[in-house]
Amino acid sequence: MSNEKKTLLVVKDLKQHFPIKTGGLLNKKIGAIRAVDGISFEVKEGETLGIVGESGCGKSTTVRSIAQLYRPTSGDVIFEGLNLCEAKEKELVLARRNIQMIFQDPYASLDPRMTVRSIISEPLVVFNKRGLLDKKLTKLEIEEEVERLMERVGLNKAFKNRYPHEFSGGQRQRIGIARALALNPRIILADEPVSALDVSIQAQILNLLNELQKELNLTYIFIAHDLAVIQHISTRVAVMYLGKIVELADSADLYDNPAHPYTQALLSAAPIPDPEIERKRQRIILTGDVPSPDKIQPGCYFQARCPKRMPWCTCHVPPTFDLGNNHKVACWLYDEKDYSKISKEEAQADADKNKTEVK
Amino acid sequence: MKKYFKNKSFLFGFIFLTFILLIVIWGYINLPYDINEVNIKDKLAPFSKEHILGTDHLGRDILSRIMIGSRLSISIGFYVVLFGFLIGVPIGAISGYFGGFIDEIIKKIIDTLMAFPGVLIALMLIAVFGSTSTNIIIALTIMSIPRFSRIARGGYYTYRESPFILATKARGASTFRIMIIHIFNHVYGDLLVTASLTFASAVLSEAGLSYLGLGIQPPNPSLGKMVSDSQAYILQKPSYVIVPALFIIIVVMGFNLLGDGINKVVEEERENE
């Protein structure tokens, strides 16, 4: 069914490297943090793509790069035929009308000096001034629109002259959502919109997002580190590790048959809300830490912690294998060839050979 | 505004400055005597009905001279703050917001300016171009630019990466709009404090220069010049020294207290957010 739907956003080999500089007068570049290191995916109209991964794996940077808040180092983000990475300022502003963000921290992402009215009307005012809306709005129309948006996200419109600090976390996140909806976007990039909230509030916000999606035919890219949240809201899920997507599959498929050892470990770590099953739950415990993203790894990025590591993995970066049924995984276990019997020396020799060939 | 008046420093600063302002306005409306009207017979007269603050060594009315002197001091302070603000803040804002190479260059220039003793610049300028009020304003403005640009740079640097500014950017606001409206909204408090303190130090510097005879030239009255003129008569008529000195203190302290008060309120507000 998803094949019939239009592809809305294509991300191709997106890379975002933050330079490490020595500082001082010469300010030499001595390395780079590879926050996002070559990820590709497509987003179809009306779907919700969930992105999961542990802290520091580049989830937030990914969506910020898509929104061009940080200009990507390389790669393409194509939205409706327009490559945002090469777009001019003017085209980008027009595209931003359709790509809006909801931020993680409802406390920091709302300007404490602005009233709710000015926060929600800000995008309208900006686009109105530049004459980029379908028709010019008067002050009164903007006012009405703000009230409509506030009611839509479940805020009392009488609160529009209040400041953000007068609201609770959940209410603030509703303000953030209203602000994102103001321009009638096609796609919303939600950067951990619920992780700063209480569990009960999380459910409310998730339901609100679900309702809005149905009503306005929105597309979401939804980041979370909570697997239950992702399962609840996503149609497809991408698992990220150290700036790369290790597995991408339809939500149900991913939760039923996790392919990548990292995904398996993640899923086994999630508690199950049933004490009977929970007691029998087998956890795959990962050892070690996420390696520093400032070095280029010769092999699989996960190999240092992988319970199913083979000698081959230490020196060969896995490509993405298609398991069919829209399930993609970046792990050597799923290649047609069996690498488990190849010894370390052979693997190393093969890697060296490839290197010289490339040279 | 209520928050400001609850603060004692602000309140006292405000009272001091209102007092000075009333004196200056009174001078505009009804100057008691011509400031250059010499009356040797009446020299060094004590406080009286005719001469409320007495007369100086040439028999000129001290109150009238103070009215005009304060007016000059305050207008010099005002222009220094105005130009310092208009030049310093954009420089600092660009430096802080864009960072990188521009920031490095601007920072070095500002550091150089700061390392230079301000009075020395003023002395040089005045020695070369003569001591007109324009030159005093130029000299003091050069001294005040680093103050403004440093504060502005700090503010813009802090807020440029803050989540709500990123959010605004994602909403399609232009860089110009972000700088002028969104970030300025957060740094204007600090800049107001700087403006107030700069005002105080400009008035003080002007008084200092005039005291040395490099500032406003006679026959125009200046508070600093009055203090230096009256020194010779300190035993005959102490009030001749004390009165202009007191006025300098009131202006300087008024602005300092005002600045402190604003600073307190701004900090409190920041904590409440």
Would you give an account of this structure?
- The complex is a heterodimer of chains A (359) and B (273).
- Chain A is α/β, with parallel strands linked by helices.
- Chain A is 33% helix and 21% strand.
- Chain A has helices at 59-66, 89-98, 116-129, 139-152, 169-181, 199-216, 227-233, 251-256, 261-269, 275-280, 344-358; strands at 7-21, 29-44, 48-52, 74-79, 82-83, 99-102, 187-190, 219-223, 236-241, 244-250, 321-322, 328-329.
- In chain A, the strands form 2 sheets. Chain A has an 8-stranded mixed sheet with strand order 6-7-8-3-9-10-12-11, with helices on both faces.
- In chain A, a hairpin with a 2-residue loop joins strand 9 (236-241) and strand 10 (244-250).
- In chain A, helix 3 crosses helix 4 (139-152), helix 3 (116-129) packs parallel to helix 5 (169-181) and helix 4 packs across helix 5.
- The model of chain B has no long low-confidence stretch (mean pLDDT 90).
- With 273 residues, chain B is an all-alpha fold.
- In chain B, helix 4 packs across helix 6 (133-159) and helix 9 (223-230) runs antiparallel to helix 10.
- The radius of gyration of chain B is 22 Å and the shape is elongated.
Structural topology:
The complex is a heterodimer of chains A (359) and B (273).
Chain A (H helix, E strand, L loop, with lengths): L6 E15 L7 E16 L3 E5 L6 H8 L7 E6 L2 E2 L5 H10 E4 L13 H14 L9 H14 L16 H13 L5 E4 L8 H18 L2 E5 L3 H7 L2 E6 L2 E7 H6 L4 H9 L5 H6 L40 E2 L5 E2 L14 H15 L1
Parallel strand pairs in A: 3-8, 3-9, 6-7, 7-8
Antiparallel strand pairs in A: 1-2, 1-4, 4-5, 9-10, 10-12, 11-12
Chain B lengths: L1 H5 L1 H22 L32 H37 L1 H16 L2 H12 L3 H27 L3 H8 L4 H37 L11 H8 L7 H35 L1
Feature tags:
A: alpha/beta, four-stranded antiparallel beta sheet, B: 273 residues, mainly alpha, MetI-like fold, 10 helices, 0% strand
